[in-house]
Each structure stands twice: as structure tokens, then as C-alpha cells.
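Ex. 9. Protein: Amino acid adenylation domain-containing protein.
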Amino acid sequence: MKVVERIIERALQSQVALYLKDGKLAYTAAGGGLSDELRAEIAAHKTEIIAYLQALSGDADDTGGFRLERAPDGVDRPLSSQQHQVWLAQKINEQGQYNIANAFEFRAHLDPARLSSTLQHVLERHEILRTVYVADAAGEVRQRVLGSAAFAVTFTDLSAIDEAQQRNEVAALVAAEQARPFDLSRDFPIRAVCYSCSPSRSVLSITIHHIASDGWSQELLVGEIAAVYRALSEGRAPALAPLAFQYGDYAYSQQKALSEGRFEREKAYWLRELAGAATDPVLPTDFARPKVFVSSGASVECRLDAEESGRLGALAKRHNMTLFMLLESALALLLGRWTGREDVVIGSPIAGRDLEATHGLVGLFVNVLPLRTRCPVQGPLEQYLRDSKSRLLEAFAMQSLPLGIAMEALGVEQALSHTPLFQAVFNLQTVAAESLALGDIELAPLPQAPLIKYDLEVVALQGTDGLTLSWKYADRLFAANTIETLAEAYRALLRQIGSGDALDIADLVFSGLSAIASRGSEDVLADDNARASAIVQAHFPGSPVAWVRQGSAATGRHVVHVLLPDPLAAEVLAQRQRDAQAQLQSELGAHWQPDAWSLVGRECLAAAGHLDKKKLPTVAFALETDVQRQVAAVWQEILECQAIGLTDDFFDLGGNSIKAMRVTSKVSEVCSVDMQIRDIFEYTVLADYAAQVEARSLVRQPGIGKRPDGERMALSFSQERLWFLDQLNGGSPEYNMPALFQLEGRFDHLRAEEAMRTIVQRHEVLRTVYESDDAGAVQRVIDGADFRVAYADLSTLSEAAAQQELERLIRAEVVRPFDLAKDLMVRAGYFLLGHTEDGGQRGILLFNIHHIACDGWSLDLLVNEFVSVYRQLDTGDSAALPELPIQYGDYAYWQRQWLGSGSFDQQLGYWLKQLEDVPAVHALRLDRPRPEIKAYVGDSVAGGVDAATTAALDTLAKRFQLTPFMLMHAALALVLARNGNSDDVVVGTPVANRHQAQTEHLIGFFINTLVLRLNTGHGTLGDFLREVRQVHLDAQSNQDVPFELLVDRLNVPRTTQHTPLFQIMLTSDADYGLKRGEERALLMLPGARIRTYPFEGFAAKFDLEVNISQTFETTALRWTYDSAIFDRSSVERLNAHLERVMASLAALAADLGRAPETPLAPLPMLAEREIRFLLDRHDGRPVTYPQDRCIHQLFDAQAEKTPDAIALESDGVRLTYRELHEQASAIARHLRSVQAVGPGRLVGVCLERSVHLVAAVLGILKAGGAYVPLDPSYPKARTGHILEDAAIDLVLTQESLRGQFEGQRCELVVVDGDVVAAAAGTDDDSALPVVAPSDLAYVIYTSGSTGKPKGVAIRHANTVTMLYWARNTYSDAELARVLASTSLNFDLSVFELFVPLCFGHCCVLVRDALALIEQPVAVTLINTVPSAIKVLLDSDAIPAGTQVVNLAGEPLPKQTINDLLARRACRSVYNLYGPSEDTTYSTWMRFEAPVDGSVPIGRALPNSQALVLSPGLALLPPGVVGELYLCGAGVAKGYYNNPALTAERFIANPYYDAANPDSGPVLYRTGDLVRLDENGLLYFIGRVDSQVKLHGFRIELAEIELQLGRQTGVDAAIVVLRGSDEARQLVAYVKPAHMPPAGVEQAFVTALRESLAHALPAYMVPGAIVLMGEWPLTPNGKIDRAALPAPESATIAKTYLAPSSELERQLQDIWQQLLARERISVDADFFALGGNSLLLTRLHSRIKSSCGVNVPVKTLFAHRSIAAQAFIIEGFLAVSRAPDALAADVVEEEI
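Predicted C-alpha cells for Amino acid adenylation domain-containing protein:
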């Protein structure tokens, strides 16, 4: 290896980096490149170099990368990943930022025909240059190659103008041509324009889209164009080397390799490397970042001369780095210091042409590596450079994964305004010295405007005369002086580094950065504001002056406020203003002219004597255009503002999302444009919004017209769902909408009755009934409907009796269902309670409307219209309200027609994608199981926050451009996520859904429900709130899709237990903008005062409904909950958590600049007492124990104390403590003297269960070594892996097991031979080493997810802690005789051996626990797994003297505990839980009485903690299922020889408390799901991953699947654990490459099982193997594991069951017609076949007409097969035929 390392070092000194690519040796070179001498030396040692680099990367089995192969003929080819990223970016931001421009000046005659032929030839050669990109119906983009004939060069003659004009004109034309976007779906991706200036001078402009080219391709093209033109000039055919492949072949091969998983190693690397990297911009910009990145920019250059660059090169060689590595590392330091971040990501482009066949292809191969650097502010510079080199070498070795794939894996989306992950790019290039020519014509490249794709791009150009540093930058983000400062700071930094004077990073001086480091996007503006203010101040000496910008940066106005202490003459004042304006224009430019001057009074002064901007008046700038005036009129109407100016902000004026929706609708109608709701969130200032309105073309949703006469009146989708629920529930009150008012004064209930008749007649929907026909539900308007207001006089009753009767009457009315087929949809009542002193009345007015005809908006309308009509009637006038243009039935008809539009399809597409794989129910823990049918009974909990918190939340919301409701949704989502430990949080929220102005005054059920789905798993608050905003804007932009239709299209499983899609509703108290000032006054009835009457009646339509009521003073919360599933205390806890999250968010308003970077996971939610409870062990003080002792030292001390006591029994052999000590010491002396065993040395133990096994283990420990169990029953392959992985070269074994180690490189010591006798002659242990508690005691190998077992390294100190817990927990009598029945490979053996032997008790060693059946032995404590104890119980084989049974290793059934105690097989049972990584046992629970309910795993052992955490490591409240993390004295050192896995599973403890003896600095991630109850007890739930425990062994299912996949004839395999309790078994589902013929299946399965037995331990071989022809799939194409058949039924194919009766045949016909299917089996599920609520109601109607029975819809819903429905119908028919003949099992209750 020395030779290889020397070659690699020499290569680095020559600026050559060697790395592996596709298993082959590759290099990148700078400077002089790869010399012939070095190339030859590398070639001579190629194999050794590859092996060395493979060893470094830890992946000698690399299978990444791919080979080029031809794409199939006749099909469109896919895009490469690079192309797809560019295509998507182009679609998002359709500018010319991806145009690659080249322009050349020709100083000779250029032949136009020859030039055209040349380019035609090149296009014919490279298909990519004539490829377009077309999206198919499914949205997938494909490449389509066109013929080259359509391509033409454009020739423009400019010879008629003079040379000066020509140069200006050419420059302008070339710039315009190169900026013109391509239409990638139609245009060739290359354009050429030739400008002829004179016979001897022409300019050729070639523009190529980046999707078809890169830098390498540009050089290829220029070379090929020159070669072809030269050949044609010489009259010969071009002789370019033929191309074996086209770019489309590369794209096809790449995508094929990706689908085959060929890049998994690279993907894993980048996922790990970029985890937690910022995805939002981090560079401090001078100007506000545009919403859409603008590819406009400039460049700044500076130089290092040859001497300076030479010093850098020499430094790089000294550090074995390339110059690129040094320059990139220095740039990272600079950017880190500039941004104030130690985590810096820089993009670096690489050619991406590792495959030699790509070298001659034109196309987009370039990739950009996101190079991540940790940039400390201090530390040795040499170490930093060394770390950077290692980091860069790793990154280059993983360069083949396209950036787009890495971003997709990370879940990072492309953005409009920036490139995610990095905004700065660095590259090193060598200056080319070649000259260009077309034949005899010289080409002079013309200078080009820089191609700006990133915020910053630094290019180092290396030439013989030094280094040129070019800084390209986006000039919409940075001022030139900022980049000049950065460039100079970088040059100065490189000079410092090159000089060698700086030894520490802290010694480096970053000159000039202090001037720009703190500059944000608004600071330049602030600087200029200050200058402008100073100029004005100079012209108004002694007068306080304030310069204010009103409005946005784009359309804002400058307002100068002046306080004049003394009056000035008008002319003097005007002259000073003119002088100031002249100086402002001279120094700052014309755009810094004040738009208004404002003279203010002393009331605007602050205490310090300057003008207080908060006290200054807002200047109302006059509106300038008709559109602005139209928009302002709409804003005024909806915001209730007197006047609106040009710079006013919609949300500052009181706008919210509901009003934004109304503005959108109204502006769209008034201005004849199609505005989206997101527009008002992005353009909040009136001038900006009006500009958007002006820019829009007329694309509007069609208006609502009258429905055709005589048409069948279908229901709207919202109505249809409520009608179905009413049918399902047989009429229920949960959708009644009551409104109650308390009146005092004069009231005439007959006049109220007349007013209501007018309203009922005005709104058809209030007098509409709902029936069914063969097509489903239909509505019918009742003409001439009469209306009565119910009246009850309670005034004669006592006050108490009247109040009691009132409550009864109200409750009776509120819960009385509407009969949708007969009733009017509104009822009213008046209850007279008494009279006032002035003769007036005291009473309650009640309105009750069914939701099918009303929503919240409509209820306000109803009350407003009632008051208005009542007032008119009271004055003697006839009732007169404006005529309604349409009725609700017209809307329902229009809605059905709109569903066929493209707009609907687009919106539906959004929802189907957004809600794909949506969770069926929320993750909150229920206090009780759900009833089979939801009861709709609830209660409520109130909460809220104070005015200060409310104000701070409002400030924070504005910072993130959120409405208060959006921020409250975010807060609630965090609470739900942490209380359910699920980042996927779904809630519903209502929207008014009244886009068209025609619906504004219409009563009806317009409201729609939006399903808001959030991912709370973001790193920072800024990232999370950006998603919140986007989800809301997207939902509002797609809000027209009816919720009911969405449920059907998503095919959500039907259930009567809960609502579909979401079960938590979020609402806000809003008046929908209807109660304007003048209308609020109208709520006063003539002579009567009205106020709402509180009535507590809670119909819980959802699991939870959270209502937010926000005023200027407070935010009130009301939680309505389903009391059938939640306790009040649970909801109170949720409320407290929400209040605390709101307070935590409000606290961030104090520093808005830092708020976006606030980590999300630690955001406080829990109270201090809750945190203390979660961190407490709940069972007293920690155990004190000697921390300076080792396991064998405890045994030695015990042997000295009780030498003649029996220590060990096995197969009739009994050893005293003295005898066992002597044997162990003899082995230890031998190991020490002969094998040199000492601390840290691993020694294998492969012995059958006898006294020799125990002596061997103790002997290894005494010699200082650590034992590694090697079970004699293990396959050789597994034993071999452990020996190799642990580097074991010494194994203690017995003569009969020598064969196990044939071919292994290890020395065997036979301990059942003469070893003990040979060393037994002396008892001198002085030569044995001193062993420390921190030394390893043993390494146990457990199943691993990679397919290979992993070794858990346990120290003596870990085990001693557990031993002393046992000593303090169990009595001497209980430990008197401990059964040792567990394999040494399973860590239960640690308890069984060392607990008795360290404390003076007897260890009873047997073959295994089941040996007690054949050979009973006397024991007091049994330590085994539940499945084994169950067998012993059933066999009555538990020894009579057993006092304690310890059970561990797998879930413990309560029946096992109860059976043990009931049969008096023992006095107590312990449930012990713990992974090997936490030293045998982590939690414990003792049972001395029968168990009723779930069995807990108990509490943490002393000196340790068991924490239940979220994926973000947040503490989870009691009851929430989360992952269990363990810390404390038992946590292992890690995984032996596996630092990567150790780092993944053993992490820093964020809750570490050095003062707490239970705490520890390291947390172990168990991967187990648990929950903590209110008493501090833990309950095991399951595994996070596919790891399971069976019979005490931890098994990684992936390891078995991997082995199965390696077997001959196996295509794929899935392994699951099936069954319950002791019947659990591993089941393998195998899909053969070719299904074996009938009769051969069993032989195939047998062969598989035998093959597995050679590769896996017996406990990992599946108990059943099921052959699968095809996998069952979920709707989105994933394997449906839940649908895998049980082993016993696996061979039974799903068969068609034909009808067995005439009724079943009749039903089958009806089903087949409704579902448009043939041959429906009588056991098929109606909904699984595509049925929905509408079709179910039609089925109900068909059954009624065909069978003559009216089966309730609810019954049909519950019985979903033809056979089940036929049985029910038979029962109904029997009832109709003979009432007395009803079968006992067909009764209404059961149905």
C-alpha cells in the first residue's frame, strides 16, 4: 500500500485527483493535466489503486453507474435527469436564463449556402439539436426527434448602415436574440442568425438551449462546425468520426439505470451529506429577492499574478490537494464569514462524461455537485484543508448521481426565486490558447453578457501568467460594490493563505466583509433613505425631518414629513422644497424625488425630539388609472374603508382570506379578468395588484345562468352528501343549524311570521324537498308553502320554571330532525318569557335551518333579511328586497355542468396529487375505541391567549405573509403532529365558495370543505411556514372541487365510524364581511333590543372541531370534541399545548430577523411539569454501585468470600466457586501467556453448554479480553462473517467442533482438553492484566438491516450496572438457583450467568428451557422468552420451587402472566424489555396479581432513562406513540468496527443533564415504538422498521429477504411476521422468476428452505413460504402488504361465486347495470368495485322498485355484498308477507 499511497500523493501534487467511478479508476486534472510518466505509473499499479480506493470508500462491491445502450427504436425517449431539471426550471420561469449564447465575428467573406449546409450537417449528426420535448396525457415528458430539413439559418443584411450604427445594431440584435426564450415543445433547441455587415465582415449568433448542450458540447460544436465548413470549402465530404450513440441513448440508459437502483450508493451518500442543509437562500442580498429569479447580471474580475498563484499551487501540493480543492475551500471560508454561517454549500459543475462514448456527443451531461463545508471560525488551517480534501474526494467519488435525483431524494423542490441547496457556484478552468477558424476565415469571439443562473458564480481561470478570478452575479440581487468587495476579500484571503503566515483560521483577515456582512436586502434602501433624509434636513435646518416610503419596493411612493417650529412664508417653503428636490436628483437620481410633502405638528414628535414614524400620518396618494379606481372601489366595499390610496396594503386595511376571496371574485367580474386568490397574497399593495389586473387577459369561469325549464333538478354535491348521510342515519339532528336571539322590547310574532313567509318565498331552497328516483336524489320546489312561527307563552310560570321549560323547548326543537322529503328547510319559534316594566316583552327568538339549505353565510343573510323585512312591515310598507338573479337550484345545475370543464380537471388533478396516500385517520390517541356508528354527541373545552400574545402572533404572521388563520393552522398542526407523532397532519376547513357575485345574496349550501394537508417535518420555522402559506394558497386556488366529489374520486374507504379524509375541523368566527356598519345597525328591531342567546348544545360532527375567534384584544379557542372517544382531560391537554405553542411563536416576534431560522422541533409545547414527568424514572432514587469494578472481579471477590458454595451445575457436574475460579484462572493464564490476550482483544467462544463454557467466558474476562459468542449451530457462513468482521484470530472451542472452523484464519484453543490442566499448576494470577470498567466485556452479534449481522460492543461498566440492579431487585431466596437456559448469543445469558455468579448464588446450566420437560431441575428463578414458558406451562414442567419467572425477548401476552400466577407456577412474573445495545434489560415491570388490560414493559432501570421521542427528537406527551430512546449507564459503546452505524444509532442526547445520575450523554435509538401512560409506565407497540423479535431473537426481515433474493429462480421476496402470541411465525412471500409447474411447487419451496438453512440461523428460516404469481398492489402501485394471503389460504385463488337464488340474480343484474361491470361475484364488496354514496342511493331506489321493499340505506351500507343484501331483503320480504314469521335474527336493531 505504500507504493499506492505514494502514487496518489504524487498525483495530487500534480493537480490530479484519483477516484472510483462505476468501479473503474477515474481522475480529474487541472493545470498541466496528467503527464505521460504519471499515467504510466498509474497504469502499472491500476489494480492496487482500485483496491485501495475501494477500501477507503468502504464499498468494494460497488455496482453504481451504468453502461450506454441503444434506446428501443420507434418510441419517444425519456429525458435525462439533467434535462428534466432544466425543463422544469424553464417551465417555472420562462425566461432566457438557460440560453447558451455564442457570437463570432468573421473577417472574410462568409458563404451563406455553405454555412447553412454546415449547420444542417451538424444537426443531422446530433439528434439532440433537433429534439423537442412533449408532455403526454399523463404529464410525462418525452423527447421527440424531428427531421433536420425544417432548420434554417436566418440571414439579416445590415450593409446599408454605417459601421458605427452596425456595431450598435448588431449588439442590440444579438442580445435580443440570445435572450429570446425557446418553446421547448415546438422549437429546435438551436437558433442561428447571421448578420451581414459587408462582403468581408459578418457576425454569426448561435443560441442553444441548455437542455441540449453544455460547456463541453459548445467546444465540440464549434470544432465540428469549423471542420465541416472547412471540408465543404475544400470540396470534400466532411469526415467526422461516426457516433456510436445519440444523446437519447444516454438519457434512456441513465433512466434505466435509475429504475434498476444502480445509484443507490450515491443517493445514500448525498442524502447523508446534505441532511439538514438549508434549502432557502442564505446569501445576504442588497436588494429584495424577486419572486421569480431574473437572469440578468454582470461580472467583476481580479487577478493573482504568476508568483502569487504559484505559491498557492505549492501550498496545494504540500497538502496533497489540487488547486481546485484549495480555492474552493478558501471560498467556503469567505462565504461562511460573509453569511455568518459555519455550514456552507457551494455548487461545483463537473463534466459528467465518465463514459468514454459520451465524449463526442453534444448534449446536457454536466452535473453540479453540492459541496458542503463546515467552516469553523477558528482551528488549525492545516486541519481544515485536510478535512476539505477528504470531503471533496468523497464527493467526486459520488459525482455520477444527477443533482435533480439528489434533490428529489431529499424532498427539495425547485423554486421560482433561487436554486435550492446552494446559490453560489465555483469552477476552475484552464485558459485555452487555441485560435478559431472556418477554413481560411478567422473567428473572433464577441464578448457576451454573462449567463446568469445562480446568485453568484466564481470562475477561476488558470493561465501561464497567473490566475483570473471572475465573479458573475445576479444584478437584481447584488450591487456592484458588494461583489467588488467580495472579490477583493477573496483575493486578499488567497494571498494570506499562500503566504503561509496564517496557521489558524482565526488568524485570517477577511478584509472589507464587515462593510457588507450585515447588509440585508433592505439595507441599501435604508442607506439611501438616510442620505435622502439628510439632504432634505440640510434645507430645513432646525426642523425634524422624516423620509418614508409607502407601498412596495416596486410601486412605492416617497413621502417627506417636515415639522416646522416656526411658520414659513409659502414662497420660502416652496423654494426650499425645490432646492432639496434638485439636490436629490443630482445625488440620488430622478427616482428619489419626493412624491409628496407633508407638514406635521408637534404631536408627531418622539420623546427624543425626532419625528416618530408610528405617529406620522399616512399620505393617501391619488389613484391614477381606471383599473386602480375599479380595484379600490371593490376594496372599499369589502373592507368597509372610506378611502383607499395607491400605496395601501390589503391586509393592513383588515383583509383576511375570506375577504380576499370576495375581492378576487368581485374584481374578476368587475374588471373582466380571471384573478386567482394567490394574486392578492403576492401583490398586497393596491398599485401592485391593479397592475396585475391590467396585465391579465379575459379568461373567466362562466357565470351562473338560469337552469332550463323542465330539467330534472339534481342536488349540488354538498347537498347530495348531506342527503345521503340523512338517509344513512334515518334522519338525525347533527346538521341542524340553530340561531337563538334574546329580545327585550316590542315584538310581534305574527309580523315575524309574515316576514319569514316573504323570505321563504324569496329563496326557493328554503321550500325545497328532497326525494329519490331511479337516477338518485332529486329536489322539488314547493309552491305556495305556508310558514308558521311556533309560539309558546311561558310568562305565567315562575322564573325558575320558565327557564327550565325554555331549556326543554329549545333542546327539543334543536334536536328534532327535519324530514327532508316533506318539511320546509327552516323553522322558527318565539318563546315569551315575561314583560318589561315599560310593557315590552322578554323572549327568545329561534331559527333552525337544515344545513342542506344553508351555511354560515346564509344564516347571516337570513337574519339580515328577516330584520329588514320586519322593519318594512312595521312601518306599514310592503316587503321589498332586491330581486335575486338566480336561485340555488340554478347554482346546482351550473355546478354539474362546470364539472366537464378543463378548469375542473385541473383543480381535481391538484387534489388527487395533494391527497395521494393521505392517512385514513388522524394519529391522535383515542381514550376509547370508536363506536361502530358515530354517535355525534360531544362537549367543549375553552381556551385562548391574551392581547399581547395575539398582537405578537399578528406581527409574526405578517413577517411570513400569512393571515392569522394560516398561522393558527400552523400552530395547531404542530400540536397535532407532536401529540400523534406524525408529520402528516390533515385538517378540514370550510370556505364560503361564493366566487360569483350572483351568489353573494343567495341563501343555500355553498360552503365547501378544503382538506389542508401539512408536513410538519421541517427543520426550521421559516421552511414550515412557507409550506403552510403555499398549502393555503394552492387550496384556495383549487377550492371549487366539491368535497363530496373528491371523496368519491379518491375512493376513500367508507365507514360509519368517522368522516372521510379528515376528522379534525379548523374553523374561525367570521362574519363573512356581511355585517357592515350600516347593516349591524339594522339588527335592532323597531322598539326591541336583540342580542344572541347562548345555548350549550354540542353536536360533534367531527372527532375534534377547533374554532378560533380573534379580536384586536384576544384570541379565543373552543374545542368541540366527540365525547364517545375523547376524555375531557385529553382535550384540555391539547388546548394547553396549543396555547403554549402560540406563546412560543409569539415570543419569536421580538426578533423577526431570526425567526425564519428557528429550529422547529425544539419549539416549546410542553409545560415544565410535563417535561419533568417525561424525564423522570418514576420509581425512586438511582442505585449506587461500585463503579471501579469489572464482571470477573465481582466473581473473584465472591469466590474468595464463599469458596465452597456451589457456583455452577450442569448435567450432574457441580463446581464450587473455588473450582470454577481455578478453571477460569487457568484459562486466563493460558490466554495471557500463550496467546497474549489483553484488554481490547476479542476472543471467540464456540462451545456446547457445559461447565467449560462458563469457565471459558470467565477466563477470557480475567485475561482482559472480550468474548464473542459463536453458536455451534450457526451456519459456517454466518460464523465466518463474524470472525471476519470482528477480526477474531483466536477461538475457544472443543474437540468435537473443530470442523466448524475449517478454512478460517483463526487459532483454536480446545478447552475440554489439556489447556486447563496445563495452566492449573499455579494459582498465580499476578501476570493477568489490570482491566478497567471501560474495557470491553463482550461483543454480541445481532441481526442487521444490511443483510449482515452487527456486533454490539458492551463494556464491563455497562453490565455491572445491570447486575447491581438485579441484586437490589431480587431477594437472595429468589436468586438462590438461577436457570441458565439461553444461548450465549442472546444477551439474556448475561443475566443468567453473571447475576448468580457475582453474588454467591448457583447458576443451573441446561441445554435450553425446554430441557426442563425431559430433565427437571430445581431452580428458583427462570429467565426465558414467553413462547418457551408457554410450552413449559402446557407441559406442567415448571419446577415446583420456582419463585420468579423473568420473561423477555418478545411481547408478553397477559394470558401468559395470568396462567403463571393462577397455576401458582411462581410468586411473581417480571416483564423485562431491552435491546442488546442497552445491556440486556432497559425497563422492568413486576406482576404479582392477574393482569387486566395491556401489559406494560414498565419503567427504566435505575441509572438510566427511557425517553419517548418524535423523529425530530421532541419529547412526546403521555399516550403518544413514539420511538423509544435509551440513555444512561447501560448504553453500549457502539457497534464494533462499524462507526457509520454507530453514529446513526448512538446519538448525542439533547436532554443530557450531568447533575442527574439517570441521564447520559448518548442516546440509543431502539427503533421500537412505545407509549408512556399517565402513571409513567411504558407500553411496547411495535417496530419502526421491519425489525421484529421472535422467540427472543431480534430479526431484521430485510436480511432474510436479501438471502431469498440471492437464491436461484427467485425474482423478489417479502418476509413478514404473522400470527399472535405463541402462534407467531415468519412467512416468506416469494415471486419466482418463473412460476413452477403444478406439482413442482413443493419441491421448489423445499429447495429454498434448505438453501436458507445454510445461510441463516434456524430461527431466521421462515416457517412458511408462499409462492406468488403477482403482488397485490395499492391504488398507487405499491405492494399492498396487508393484502398478502395467510399461509393456509395462499393456494386458494379468488374465484367467481355465482348467484344461488333468483333474488341474488336480480340483485346481480342491478349491480352490474349501476357499476357498469360484468360477472360480479356475490361476495364482492360494493364500494371496492367503484360504488359510492350516490350509486348506493340509486341501488336503494332500484331495490325498492324491483323488490318491493324499502331497505334503509344504512342497512345497505353495512351489508355490502350481493349475498348479504339478498339475505337482508329476504328478511324484509318475510316481514311483509307474514308479520309473525319474522326470523329472530332479522330484527331492526341488528340491521
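Check your answer against this statement. The radius of gyration is 41 Å.
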